Amino acid sequence: MSFHHYLVTILDVENRKSEEVLVEKFSTSVKIGDLKSFHHYQIYLFSVGERGTLSCFERPISAVTGINPPQKVHIKPEDVGEDSIILQWESPPDGHEVYIQIKPSSDIREVLTLFVQKVVQEAATFSHLDPTTVYAFSIRTERGGFKHSTPNVKEIQTAPSAVEFMNHSRNSNAITVSWPSARSLLDGYIISISSECLMKEEILPSTERTFTFNSLSSGTDFLISIITTKGLKRSHLTVLMISTYPDPPSDLMTHHQEENTIYLSWKLPHGGFEKFQALTIIVGSLVLQGSS
What we know:
Layout: E1 3-12, E2 18-24, E3 40-49, E4 61-64, E5 71-74, E6 85-90, E7 97-104, E8 115-119, E9 123-126, E10 134-143, E11 147-148, E12 152-157, E13 167-170, E14 175-178, E15 188-195, E16 198-205, E17 210-213, E18 221-230, E19 233-234, E20 238-243, E21 250-257, E22 262-267, E23 278-282, E24 287-291
Antiparallel strand pairs: 1-2, 1-3, 3-4, 5-6, 6-9, 7-8, 7-10, 10-11, 10-12, 13-14, 14-17, 15-16, 15-18, 18-19, 18-20, 21-22, 23-24
């Protein structure tokens, strides 16, 4: 009998339906697709002659297909904090349990798994992480505690730690702010100041701990914010609401006097203010009187 090709028969054990695949005579392997996940099949291999004669029946190969991995694994930018990350995915249609591992990827020698969790929802929050650290997430499905899908691996870096607080000093046209060292390695800071008519931003190195905004309007409300940076990552904002001191009025003059009254005038100060206050000092008896 002249050998012509191979015949592969795939039998679905559950419903006893089968499919056939023809394989060229010079091939020694074949890929069988479009099978059900986590399903039992029996696979038969025959040699086929020129006249369609099959080889003798042999014992089939028994195989169970793998499990579908989780789909669309993703992490939203707003879900990445300095010490936490929220991982989301879509469960496969066969609805198996999801198995997640997380570990830092900065040191390949570190094989300790930091966190393992089995979840039934399509999101998981990982807390108590280190800032500015790259973590490798390995997410896969399992069934019966022994059959695992191929892992879906995502790497993500936590955000840098934010500035905890800002101290300040001020006068009528300048504000100086200072802050403590951050808890993680940084590239630097981005500090900004804004008001109704001003928006200014400065990029500072990680060694800076103080900055002064000069040439500001007096008596004006300002919003100062600062973030830390590491690569493309940004910390959350630390903000300070503060006002410069108002300027004093100028060119104070006395117009005329009456028995119990003195009339005064002055020029308005630059910048903002709420009201004026006049102080009367009676020198002889050291009496201080105020009115506004």
